[in-house]
Amino acid sequence: MLVSTTSLIEGRPVQRYLGVVTGEVILGANIVRDIFASITDIFGGRSGKYEEVLSRGREQALQELEAKAHALGANAVIGVDIDYETIGARGSMLMVSVSGTAVVL
């Protein structure tokens, strides 16, 4: 399945628009990750553990989006948007949401 942030795939005209599809994943923050992240914040550098969580959440949300598009008979999703948001008490959860238009090319 082709997944693109653009509104078209060059050389592959859209034959049918099947509708908006979404994928959402909510991940809990881990106290150990928070401690290591705060140490990284103090001394500088990247927070590998948080990056792993972001990457895993994004991949899971995209997989859900693709599954929903496939169920509609799509062979591509165009105009994909990826959003990240903290939710819950004191931002203790991370939500990754993706949306796009399922199409047949």
Automatic annotation (TrEMBL):
Top-rank taxon: Bacteria
Signal peptide: none
InterPro entries: UPF0145_dom_sf, UPF0145_YbjQ-like
Protein family membership: Belongs to the UPF0145 family.
PANTHER family with a match to the protein in the record: UPF0145 PROTEIN YBJQ (PTHR34068:SF1)
Name of the protein in its database record: UPF0145 protein GGR37_003041
Lineage, top ranks: Bacteria, Pseudomonadati, Pseudomonadota, Alphaproteobacteria, Sphingomonadales
